[in-house]
Amino acid sequence: MKDFTEITLCPEALDNSKTEFCNPVFEGEEPQAMPNTKCPPEEDGTSPASPRDGLGGQLWGQAGWRYRDDCKFTWLCVALMSAVLLFLIALLLGIVIHQLTSPQSPGAPASALPARGTTSTTAAPTRRDLPVPKTAATPTQSWLPTAGTPALPVPACGGTLRGSEGSFSSPNYPGPYPPDALCIWHIEVGPGLTIQLKMETFSVEGTASCLFDRVELYEEPRAGSMDPALDRGGPTRFCGNVAPPTFNSNSNHLRVVFVSDSSVGAPGFSARYRAVAPSEKSCAWDEHLCDQGLCLHLGFICDGFHDCTDKSDEANCSLKHKECGGPLTALEGHFSTPSHPQPYPHQQLCLWQISVPVGHVIDLHFHNFSLESHEDCSFDFVEVHDSTGTGAASLMGRFCGHQLPPILTSSRHVMTILFVADEGVADDGFFATYQARNATESR
């Protein structure tokens, strides 16, 4: 039999006709809480279930141990997450500080500028201070690389040219100029003087309107100048393989712009300028001077179009065509240099204009071809144009020397042939025949 001497009786429970036994012997069982039932404290102020008793101490000890385990795990997770977060913040700050303190690589673009007329962007150019040959120049432009191209050494071009004379050329001249080039030269001479510019060699990719590669000349009048002679109706634009005529400015400031696209290149150009008095404007021997300084190639003389304001380019044409040149309207025919097969005279200008019925094309054959030889055919030469005029856009070829030109066929019913001889060496000249055929017929 068990000993019940340690049983405690709670008399307050008698009011509810219930008896409660608080026996600490029954260890391991959770005491059932009874509503409206409370055991009074002992005389020493402790309750029967006080943590200092055996059952209470064990229960509170087990609960406290579990709570301490949970708290340790939670704090461990918080510590790990805090350490990871601090590491990420420190890493981000390190990257930012490195970007801010690292020096920018030489030649790297500072910002991106919109490319002109293209869908891609172009890196902002870096200005280069390289001298222009034979002049006291301070370059102001360099060619523009396209976005995404590697940083390579690029030839300098452009600048401010001062002095009574000087020269400049396209980048890499006499080698092919680079793509996407933009070169700007500002030529300045003394007050009261004008600028005479001559292209010594010229080979720039181009079409009729010079939309791709081109050289542009801009008059820059003095501030406040109202001289109407300075207005030439916009820039003068050149391209192709024929050197432009001599250019005489009307002021002491001239801007020369060279532009190339991203495709085909060419050898480019070389140019020379000099300061002249307004009364001393002149043209080359094989050019026509009109309008107080405008120079025209001889092919524009007596071509049926008034290129000069004073109309001097179409004056006395019957006399100029007396010895050679003239219109050819038959379906077939021939022509030759003066005195052929004897040497042609010096200082000759002959212009033949072939015109056949619409719907026909013209086949041109050269025979016995012998003209003074020159690398650029700048002395004696023959030009064949696929039009009624002699513009650079219609040029089919310029020929000199002793090699027979190929057979040339027009795209329309007209063709123009220009022969020019200087005052130097004369040769035997040429003999040529032409024949018209229906445009739909094969040769």
Whole-number radius of gyration? 49 Å
Write the H/E string, N to C.
EEHEEEEEEEEEEEEEEHEEEEEEEEE
- Amount of helix: 10-25%
Largest sheet: 6 strands, mixed
User: What proportion of the residues form beta strands (DSSP E)?
Assistant: 25-35%
Name the structural class. Answer: mainly beta
Structure annotation, total helices: 2
Q: Spans with pLDDT under 50 lasting ≥5 residues?
A: 24-52, 103-154, 226-231
Report the mean per-residue pLDDT as an integer. 74
First and last CA, distance: 139 Å
Strand order, sheet with most strands: 5-6-8-13-10-11
Number of strands: 25
Shape: elongated
Can you walk me through this structure?
With 443 residues, the chain is mainly β. Helix content is 12%, strand content 30%. It contains two helices and 25 strands. The protein has helices at 54-101, 317-320; strands at 8-9, 21-22, 112-114, 121-123, 136-138, 159-162, 165-169, 182-188, 194-203, 214-219, 236-238, 247-248, 253-259, 268-276, 287-290, 294-297, 326-328, 332-336, 348-355, 360-370, 381-385, 395-399, 408-409, 414-421, 429-438. The strands form seven sheets. It has a six-stranded mixed beta sheet, with no helix packed on it. Strands 17-19-24-21-22 form a five-stranded mixed beta sheet, with no helix packed on it. Strands 7-14-9-12 form a four-stranded antiparallel beta sheet, with no helix packed on it. Strand 3 and strand 4 form a beta hairpin. The longest helix is centred in the first third of the chain and has 48 residues, at 54-101. The radius of gyration is 49 Å and the shape is elongated. The model is unreliable at 24-52, 103-154 and 226-231 (pLDDT under 50).
